[in-house]
Design brief:
Chain B: This is ATP-binding cassette domain-containing protein. Chain B: GO terms for molecular function: ATP binding. Chain B: InterPro entries: AAA+_ATPase (IPR003593), ABC_transporter-like_ATP-bd (IPR003439), ABC_transporter-like_CS (IPR017871), P-loop_NTPase (IPR027417). The complex is a heterodimer of chains A (about 240) and B (about 250). Chain A has about 240 residues and is mainly α. Chain A has one domain. In chain A, about 85% of the residues lie in helices and about 0% in strands. Chain A has eight helices and no strands. The two termini of chain A are about 35 Å apart. Chain B has a six-stranded mixed beta sheet with strand order 6-7-8-3-9-10, sandwiched between helices. Chain B has a four-stranded antiparallel beta sheet with strand order 2-1-4-5, with helices on one face. The chains are: A mainly alpha (about 240), B alpha/beta (about 250).
Amino acid sequence: MIKEIGKYFIFLGSLFVNRESFKTYYKLVLDECMTIGIGSLFLVALVSTFIGAVTTVQTAFNMVSDFIPKYVISQVVREMVILELAPTIMAVIYAGKVGSSMASGLGTMRITEQVDALEVMGINSISYLVLPKIIASVLMYPMLVITAGVCALFGGYLVGTLTGIITPNDFVYGLRSSYNEFTVVFALIKSLVFAFLVASISSFKGYNTQGGALEVGISSTQAVTSSVIAVLIADYLLAQLLLSI
Amino acid sequence: MIKIQSITKTFGERVVLNEISGTFEKGKPNLIIGASGTGKSVLLKSIVGLTKPDYGQVFYDGRDFYGSDRETKIEIRREMGMLFQGGALFDSKNVEQNVMFPLDVLTKMPQEEKLERVNFCLKRVGLENVNSKMPSEISGGMKKRVGIARAIVNNPNYLFCDEPNSGLDPQTSILIDELILDLSEDLDITTIVVTHDMNSVMGIGEKIMFLYKGVKLWEGANTDITHSGVKELDDFVFANKVMNSLRGK
């Protein structure tokens, strides 16, 4: 375990030595942004809309007292979505979709000697293959989190108002009341950290694949598992660091 | 010229390469032969720096590869071209992009010049009008030829071929062998070929190094290989039925 963490940090250090020209990375980062960002947009929008909808219904189900105003439902949904559901739950989905894809892609390149081909050309394969993925992930994931937040609140609004759980006015009032801007800043800080963790851990697992097709599958699974564990630990640490009074 | 000295590599308890020394000359294919599992590919990977030997030195025209700083290593590597066993073409790029890749990343050549060079190299390996094909759309032999085109596109001083004929039919194997021979002579580069194919040995083996269980047992030309007097080499050479039928004659 300690050895693996040590290897991971050496791997991260290798990202920044013997880099290629800015122009080379620019194209690669754009390609990765398309794959990571646009490729994940539909899934993120779909999942977050449903999460928002379900959260609204379940919050309403638990608000049984007449002393609690209806707008509290959307207030609770807002806090849950911004603080946890959009950045963290999306990170788990992101690890499953993007992380596994990164690990299997790099793993396949490794076992088919494409990584060796880069090395023989005198190219730092870690920097060339992994750095653009990390940069693209850090650029795109916060945008996906913002999209997820908007879609989740929209989903909540739609279900809440269409089913008569809450009136449109109450829902919007709840969203706006006692709003603390720092929650959004906190969600974005989390999204940056999670994006880095998922991309770097998945790439690390994929890059170090040895063997054949079976091992590529194993690396892909390990990438998702390790990324999710890292995200959950980071989630707790960030909450403790930035939200504790 | 490439010179290796006392290359030794172990994996755990197992000694894969034991004090291998030798020279690989310019302008002709230098073959490393031996049965499967004798350490040929590990030796090749040790020479190009993909596997670091436990000890030993590799000199590229007098430049000590493992004793050099990072910049010199990169400089030496940029003079290398390598054909991998499976071609190692980049799946996401088409033939033209694969061959152009070293020029894209390592040079500042204008696009037109790069395209001209790519087409020249593809023509040199006998491939035309395949520029837009993806690696998944071409045959194994074509992949090897694209791999060779990519290896030579940046005018290397050193060409390495790992099992260039594996998985190919005899006719395509001969074509690949002839191509490697022609390139070595025409471009006057140092070429090292790892193979266990006796057709290649007899066809292009002007200088051969025979490995047996990680040890260099014999060195010479294909003209001497049938009467080396080394039992292990005889067993390897005459394991081939065609070669064995010639033995009696």
